[in-house]
Specification:
CATH architecture: Beta Barrel
Structural class: mainly beta
Oligomer: single chain
Mean pLDDT: 82
Distance between the termini: 39 Å
Number of domains: 1
Low-confidence stretches: 1-89
Largest sheet: 16 strands, antiparallel, barrel
Order of helices and strands: HEEEEEEEEEEEEEEEEEE
Strand order of the largest sheet: 2-4-5-6-7-8-9-10-11-12-13-14-15-16-17-18
Strand content: over 45%
Length: 423
């Protein structure tokens, strides 16, 4: 434990020293990178395409929001319709409104650590190898977005109506599910993000349609996403829903309906997400989440800070046999819970320190967030401290991850150094 604390203290000292020198005017910053979108640890934002980019989510706090320039005081103008959210300011442009972007990484990890400086095993891994293609333009009312290597998503986007501050747009195909903060490709629920996520799908995309309304009223940006998508299902009566592996229907389509509302003003955005999914055996999934983000407000001192906090609760209703003589074991209702808090401290526009923490519990019957009587090794808290530098589309991140289980603590902490490049 002392060795891991030394690593954490060392990371804080690196950024602290740079921040102090920068405040004294001693730091020489590199030229502004072409890609000014902060992507967390190279995992928070991997190229989610949202079609007609939302007014309500522009220039707001999010893990993966634009990092360059001064603090945002008013919401920025939305991107052109059908522009991929992963695209930076200089994508590869081709005739006919075709754009191409990409995201690739390589990581060195020291895994299965127990706190001892020499513990663990070496591992080299690749998590992101994406190529994005889109067609967009002011004269193109119907566009197209796709990730072409893994085919995580491919969708048609359309501008339906616009009058004054109001806009209406639609997407159809294999779409990114608009749940939680936008435009995140990954979520932070449970204190684990991106490829480490254990509650929601690492890439939550599904076949369906999405209708989006945006408005700008008296300095507030409002947005609402209504969508219908292929939902989750349980494979058997005694099966506990796993939202990472059960995104399929076992005896026909399970149509889920969801809605997300967001309101933002200046550097702050608040999201409320609702998702309802009927399943077999009389069960259904009702999932709700509330998220708040604050992105570098234009106030002294805190202009170097970005913050995100959120909570999710997924309620699975009782089996249809519940209360009957032939009821299966554990036929009653249960829920999963996850929350998170992340904080960034910017030393410069290209260097920041990020801390993230969260709780994640599964298959709870009692309480609101945790049922000690049903605790398992899947329940626990997760904490991460990382330092991130970005330059000219490249990102370098070094982070340490602490994972604590409620039952049966085992050595699964790890150190990760990731190099990522986006264009």
């Amino acid at each position: 434990m002392m060795n891991t604390l030394r690593i954490a203290i060392g990371l804080f000292l690196v950024v602290g020293a740079v921040a102090t020198a920068q405040a004294a005017g001693l730091v020489v910053q590199p030229p502004t990178a072409e890609n000014t979108e902060g992507r967390g640890e190279g995992t928070e934002k991997d190229g989610g395409v949202t079609g007609d980019a939302p007014v309500g989510d522009a220039g707001v706090a999010r893990d993966g929001a634009p990092a360059a320039g001064d603090a945002v005081q008013e919401p920025a103008q939305p991107k052109a319709a059908t522009e991929p959210e992963h695209a930076h300011e200089s994508p590869l442009l081709f005739p006919g409104g075709i754009r191409i972007g990409g995201l690739f990484d390589a990581s060195y990890e020291r895994v299965n650590r127990n706190g001892s400086l020499t513990s663990g095993q070496n591992a080299f891994r690749n998590y992101h190898h994406f190529v994005f293609v889109s067609r967009q333009g002011d004269d193109i009312p119907v566009g197209f977005n796709a990730e072409v290597i893994n085919q995580y998503f491919y969708e048609l986007t359309a501008r339906l109506w616009r009058k004054g501050p109001f806009r209406l747009s639609a997407r159809a195909g294999k779409i990114m599910v608009p749940f939680g903060p936008d435009p995140l490709f990954h979520k932070n629920y449970g204190g684990l993000s991106a490829i480490d996520q254990k509650l929601l799908p690492v890439v939550w995309s599904s076949f369906g349609v999405n209708l989006r309304a945006d408005a700008m009223l008296k300095g507030f940006s409002l947005a609402n996403d209504l969508y219908f998508v292929q939902g989750f299902d349980v494979s058997a009566r005694d099966h506990v829903l796993n939202m990472q592996s059960d995104l399929q229907a076992y005896d026909g389509a399970r149509v889920a309906v969801g809605d997300r509302v967001s309101i933002s003003r200046g550097p702050a955005t608040l999201w409320y997400s609702l998702y309802w999914n009927p399943m077999r055996f009389g069960r259904s999934l009702l999932m709700q989440a509330v998220d708040l983000g604050i992105w570098r407000p234009a106030w002294p001192v805190v202009s170097r800070l970005a913050l995100g906090v959120g909570v999710l609760r997924a309620f699975i209703s009782a089996d249809s046999s519940y209360g009957k003589p032939d009821a299966i074991a554990d036929a009653g209702a249960y829920y999963d819970f996850a929350d998170y808090l992340w904080l960034r401290i910017y030393a410069t526009n290209w260097l920041y320190l990020q801390a993230r923490s969260g709780l994640m519990t599964f298959n709870n019957h009692k309480g609101f967030s945790y049922d000690a009587e049903r605790a398992s090794a899947a329940d626990g808290s997760h904490h991460n401290l990382s330092v991130v530098a970005e330059y000219a589309g490249a990102q370098f991140s070094l982070g340490y991850y602490w994972n604590f289980e409620k039952v049966g603590e085992y050595p699964n902490d790890f150190l990760r150094f990731m190099v990522m490049y986006a264009f």
